[in-house]
Automatic annotation (TrEMBL):
Keywords of this entry: Calcium, Metal-binding, Repeat
Identification of the protein by name: EFHD1 protein
Domain (EF-hand): residue spans on this chain: 50-85, 86-121
Keyword Metal-binding in annotation: yes
Keyword Metal-binding in annotation: yes
InterPro entries: EF-hand-dom_pair (IPR011992), EF_hand_dom (IPR002048), EFHD1/2 (IPR040365)
An annotated Gene Ontology molecular function: calcium ion sensor activity
Cellular component GO terms held in the UniProt record: mitochondrial inner membrane
Alphabetical list of Pfam families matching this protein: EF-hand_7
Upper classification of the organism: Eukaryota, Metazoa, Chordata, Craniata, Vertebrata
Length: 199
């Protein structure tokens, strides 16, 4: 009985603390915590799956340290390969422009933020980030509902982007199935050939 009362009191205190925090957030006295898991497809809805995959491929290409970040030297190499070398100070300013956690390097989320800001027209004309967005061959035009002139156009665009997302997802699944089928056929042909030699 006493143990159950203790558990109830502990659960009550935990629930009370959560409710107080929720109330503080609702009243603007506290900031909500960012989700621990970053999902680019839900956070950056203006980009298609294909665009995000392309940006992820590009991010991995220049993340030579394979640590999930593009640091100053990797960004320097990236800008040089894109044909727009920057000064040390210019590179630092580029990182500072989208560095939300102030760690001096770009996470994949911050990398996507470059293209988000470029698409929304939030980057300065002489910004190195705008140059990066333009030279990276990734179309940064916004496909979502932001450019819609009225409610009905926005609805149609939202529906088409959702169906486009599903179509891309299905195309990726079909591609995987086709590759698996090819693998199976190659294995079967190999087994057939092997059995001919072993007899």
């Amino acid at each position: 009985e006493a143990e159950r009362d203790c558990l109830t009191a502990r659960a009550g205190a935990e629930l009370s603390a959560k409710l107080c925090r929720r109330q503080d957030i609702n009243e603007g006295a506290a900031q909500p915590r960012r989700a621990a898991v970053f999902n680019p497809y839900t956070e950056f809805k203006e980009f298609s799956r294909r665009q995000i995959k392309d940006m992820e491929r590009m991010f991995r290409l220049y993340d030579s340290g394979r640590d999930g970040y593009i640091d100053l030297m990797e960004l320097k190499l990236m800008m040089e390969k894109l044909g727009a070398p920057q000064t040390h100070l210019g590179l630092k300013n580029m990182i500072k422009e989208v560095d939300e956690d102030f760690d001096g390097k770009l996470s994949f989320r911050e990398f996507l933020l470059i293209f988000h800001k470029a698409a929304a027209g939030e980057l300065e004309e002489d910004s190195g980030l705008l140059t990066l967005a333009k030279l990276s061959e990734i179309d940064v035009s916004i496909e979502g509902v932001k450019g819609a002139k009225n409610f009905f156009e926005a609805k149609v665009q939202a529906l088409s982007s959702a169906s486009k997302f599903e179509a891309e997802l299905k195309a990726e699944q079909d591609e995987r199935k086709r590759e698996e089928e090819e693998r199976r056929h190659r294995r079967a042909a190999f087994r057939e050939l092997k059995s001919a030699f072993t007899q």
